[in-house]
Design brief:
The protein has 487 residues and is an alpha/beta fold. It has two domains: 274 residues, Aldehyde Dehydrogenase, Chain A, domain 1 (3-Layer(aba) Sandwich); 180 residues, 3-Layer(aba) Sandwich (Aldehyde Dehydrogenase, Chain A, domain 2). The protein is 39% helix and 22% strand. It contains 15 helices and 24 strands. Helix 1 packs across helix 7, helix 2 packs across helix 6 and helix 3 packs antiparallel against helix 6. The relative contact order is 0.13.
C-alpha cells in the first residue's frame, strides 16, 4: 500500500519528485502519537532519491526563475486558495500524525499555512524593492535574483506551517525546492505536494523526499547542486549540517533551540502574567519559543505562583481531537523518554516539583503531565537545557541586574517574554535582553513582515519580510554610469 487513509482521505507515502510519486526500496513505520496506532510505511529516502529530487529541481529552475514575481505569485496564490479549501483535511492529517490539537489546526495553524504562502507571494510583487540611489552621479539598482535549489529541512512540532515559512519565500524568490520533512511527521507535506500539482506549479519546482536525517538529510545537505540550506531543529543537528554545507560553501539559515525567559516584574499585572505563563504549555510544550524559565520578582512570587497554579490546574489533557482538550500527547516515544529523563534527573537531584512531574497515568501512552520545577539550582540541567516538553521552571529574583543576568545566562537567545506594568521599566529590561524576539505583556504575536530568528546558539539569520528574500535570493547591485551612452 502506498497510501494512508485519514478520515477518508488518501495520503501518499512515497516521495514526490518532478511532479510524480517515487517509490523507495526501503520504508520506515509511522505511528500516531495519540494512541500509538499504526499509520503506514513511509518511503525512506537515500542518496538516489535525493539525487533525483535535486536533478528535477535544477531542471525546473531556469523556467521557474524566469517567470517573474507576478506569474509565480499567481500560482502561489492559487496554492494558498487550495490550502484554504482543504483546511479541515490538512488539520485532520496533522493531528493524527503529530498529536497537536485539532482545534488549533482548524482555527489557526492551517489557515496560517495559506497566509504564509500568500504573504510571500504578494511581498515579492509589491514590497521587495530598494530605492535607487546615486554615487558620484552613478545609479545603484538593487535586485533580488533567484539563487537556485533550496534544501528545506523542517521540524515536527508544527510541520506544515513551519515548512511554509520556508517554502513561501523560497518559491516566491524564484528558487526551486527540495523539502525533507521530519521523519516523525511526514503526512501533511505529502498532501501539500499534491496541492502544488493541482495549483499548476510546474513539475520539479517543488519536491519532497522523506526519511531520516542521517540518510536523506545527510545526502541533501552535502549535495553540490544545492544553493541554499534552511533548517529548523536542534543545535547538534545544525552543527552537522554546517559541516556538510561548509564543503560546498552553501549558505545556511538555522532556527534552533531555545530556553527563553518569561520575566514577571514586581509591577506586573499578575493575572495577565499567569495567563501568559500557562500559554507556555501550548502544544504540550513542544514550542521552541516558549518561555520555559519563569523568572518572578521575589515580592510577588507567592501571589503569582498561586494564580499560575489555578490556571494550570484548569488545563485538560487528553485526545487532541476532543475540542475540550488543552494539552495532547508528546510527538514520539523517543521524545517522551527524553522529557521524562530530564524530569527524573531533576527529582534525583532534589529539585522541588510543584506539580506534574511524570506521565499522566490515567491516559498512559505519550501523555506527560504539565510540570513545574520550583526554585531549581542556578546552572542545573533543568534550567539550562532545552527540554521541549510541558516542563517549566520558576525562579525568583530581587533586582533588574539579577534578572537580566539570569535571562541571558544560557547558550540560547531565541525569545523572551516580559510582563510589566511600567513602559519605561519594561524597556530598560528589553534593551538588555539577548533574544531574537521579545514579547512585552503578550506572547506569540507574529507578523511575517518582522524579522524572526535567534541569537547565540539559537540560530543563524532571520526569516520574514525582506530578510527571507535576502537569504533565498542573490542580492545584486547594478551600478550604472552616466557616461558612455550613445543614444
Amino acid at each position: 500500500m502506498h497510501t494512508i487513509d485519514v478520515a477518508g482521505v488518501q495520503v501518499d507515502t512515497r516521495h514526490f519528485v518532478n511532479g510524480e510519486r517515487l517509490e523507495s526500496p526501503a520504508t520506515y513505520t509511522n505511528t500516531s502519537p495519540i494512541d500509538g496506532s499504526f499509520l503506514g510505511e513511509i518511503a525512506r529516502g537515500d542518496a538516489d532519491a535525493v539525487n533525483a529530487a535535486v536533478a528535477a529541481a535544477r531542471a525546473a529552475f531556469p523556467t521557474w526563475s524566469k517567470l517573474g514575481p507576478k506569474k509565480r505569485g499567481e500560482l502561489l496564490n492559487k496554492l494558498a486558495d487550495l490550502v484554504e479549501a482543504n483546511v479541515e483535511t490538512l488539520a485532520n492529517i496533522e493531528t493524527l500524525d503529530n498529536g497537536a490539537l485539532l482545534r488549533s489546526h482548524l482555527r489557526g495553524v492551517m489557515p496560517r499555512v495559506a497566509m504564509n504562502i500568500r504573504f510571500f507571494a504578494d511581498y515579492a510583487i509589491n514590497d521587495l524593492h530598494h530605492e535607487a540611489f546615486e554615487t558620484r552621479g552613478h545609479t545603484n539598482n538593487i535586485t533580488w535574483d533567484p539563487s537556485g535549489v533550496a534544501a528545506l529541512i523542517t521540524p515536527w512540532n508544527a510541520p506544515l506551517m513551519l515548512a511554509t515559512w520556508k517554502i513561501g519565500p523560497a518559491l516566491a524568490a524564484g528558487d526551486t525546492v527540495v523539502l525533507k520533512p521530519a521523519e516523525w511527521t511526514p503526512l501533511t507535506a505529502s498532501y501539500f505536494a499534491d496541492l502544488t500539482k493541482q495549483a499548476g506549479i510546474p513539475d520539479g519546482v517543488f519536491n519532497v523526499v522523506f526519511g531520516y536525517g542521517t540518510e536523506a538529510g545527510a545526502a541533501l545537505t552535502a549535495h553540490t547542486g544545492i544553493s541554499r540550506i534552511s533548517f529548523t531543529g536542534s543545535v547538534p543537528t545544525a552543527k552537522i549540517i554546517a559541516h556538510a554545507a561548509a564543503d560546498n560553501l552553501t549558505p545556511v539559515s538555522f532556527e534552533l533551540g531555545g530556553k527563553s525567559p518569561c520575566i514577571v516584574m514586581a509591577d506586573a499585572d499578575l493575572d495577565l502574567a499567569a495567563e501568559i505563563a500557562v500559554e507556555q504549555y501550548d502544544n504540550a510544550g513542544q514550542v521552541c519559543l516558549s518561555g520555559t524559565r519563569i523568572l518572578v520578582h521575589e515580592s510577588v512570587a507567592d501571589e503569582f505562583a498561586e494564580k499560575f497554579r489555578e490556571k494550570a490546574a484548569a488545563l485538560t489533557q487528553g485526545d487532541p481531537r476532543d475540542p475540550a482538550t488543552d494539552i495532547g500527547p508528546q510527538v514520539h516515544q523517543v521524545h517522551f523518554d527524553r522529557i521524562k529523563g530530564f524530569v527524573d534527573r531533576a527529582v534525583a537531584e532534589g529539585h522541588d516539583i510543584a506539580w506534574g512531574g511524570g506521565p499522566n497515568t490515567e491516559l498512559g501512552g505519550l501523555y506527560f503531565q504539565p510540570t513545574l520545577v520550583k526554585n531549581p539550582a542556578p546552572g542545573s540541567e533543568i534550567v539550562s537545557a532545552e527540554i521541549f516538553g510541558p516542563v517549566l521552571c520558576m525562579q525568583t529574583f530581587t533586582s533588574d541586574d539579577e534578572v537580566i543576568a539570569m535571562a541571558n545566562g544560557t547558550e540560547f537567545g531565541l525569545a523572551a517574554v516580559v510582563v510589566s506594568g511600567n513602559r519605561d521599566h519594561a524597556k530598560r529590561i528589553t534593551d538588555e535582553l539577548v533574544a531574537g524576539t521579545i514579547w512585552v505583556n503578550c506572547f506569540f504575536v507574529r507578523d511575517l513582515r518582522a524579522p524572526f530568528g535567534g541569537s547565540k546558539k539559537s540560530g543563524i539569520g532571520r526569516d520574514g519580510g525582506t530578510w527571507s528574500f535576502d537569504f533565498y535570493a542573490d542580492v545584486k547591485n547594478t551600478v550604472v554610469s552616466p557616461n558612455g551612452w550613445k543614444e
